[in-house]
């Protein structure tokens, strides 16, 4: 398979694409060829942020100006042999780090479990036989069949369709399903109008179709979006900005107060270690050691309450930002909702049957008055 340059898949004729990908739409790839291409192109997955190790995650809890001040206070107390006060500050700093580390680790595990639960399978033709495989095993050149309810597993050039419609709201934000076709399009056709392509992570809402995989993983259109998201800067929340500002003001105030105390001490005849110890004690007394612990505990309580409502909070300060939000502007379909109509009740033959299952997944049962009903024994 030649891949010296990326062709305009929407512009090329079907015969040219099949020739370039070296595949027959009836036979698909052989098992050996699929293995070879997967070794060359890698799995069909989106690149994940490598994240931080447990140690890096824990040490990251100390990256706060207020914590820097408390660590300085701890060292000064040790220098003054104030062991009880030093122990209190040490426990506060450690507890703050442990609570933040535990919450962030829990949120990361929850998001990882959520992403694994969304892994899908797809129907592919290999060696002339249709078979179900995990979507991450797809390679360029695979022949994929689609039907209503399927999630498109990779970027496809459509070969054959039958009244195929695809919901592309995950990619373009447009909630109305797009009617697909197989004819070639002009080279300058914008992405949203390339109706002969099916994009990864979009949803088939109607009809059937067959397509050939053109790109996988990070090279898909959804992969480009994922790359931009992973490279985006992490912004500070209003709470962290205020704490950092307070920490800077506090640090400047403590330094200025210490300098004033040092000058007045010298003017009144104090010298040597007594003056230095007095200034250090004054600086330590001006530092609110319990502030970080109080803030962390309050935010942790907020996270706990949100967790009871199945909300995942990764960073503790995000709780304050969410609580301060008064207006949320959002395109509802495909964001706040999944854009999947679900039948929950059917009235037939004068009786009402309950239907279980969610969205387009081919799973669920019928029940009548709480008892499972077999459609063959209830021909209503």
Describe this structure in words.
A hairpin with a 2-residue loop joins strand 1 (about 120-125) and strand 2. The protein starts with 13 loop residues before the first helix and ends in a 7-residue tail after the last strand. The protein has helices spanning about 15-20, 30-40, 55-60, 65-80, 85-115, 170, 220-230, 240-265, 270-285, 290-305, 320-325; strands spanning about 120-125, 130-135, 145, 155-165, 180, 195-200, 205-215, 345-350, 350-355, 365-370, 370-375. The chain has about 375 residues and is an alpha+beta fold. The chain has 11 helices and 11 strands.
Order of helices and strands: HHHHHEEEEHEEEHHHHHEEEE
Largest sheet properties: 7 strands, antiparallel
Shape: elongated
**Number of distinct beta strands:** 11
Spatial extent as radius of gyration: 31 Å
Question: What is the top-level CATH class of the largest domain?
Answer: Mainly Alpha
Helices, by number, come to 11
Query: Can you identify the CATH superfamily of the largest domain?
Result: Calcium-transporting ATPase, transmembrane domain
Q: Which structural class matches the secondary elements?
A: alpha+beta
- CATH architectural grouping of the largest domain: Up-down Bundle
**Helix amount, in percent?**
40-55%
The overall average pLDDT, rounded, is 81
The tally of structural domains comes to 3
In what range is the share of β-strand residues?
15-25%
Which runs of at least 5 residues are low in confidence (pLDDT < 50)?
Answer: none
In angstroms, what separates the terminal alpha carbons? 55 Å
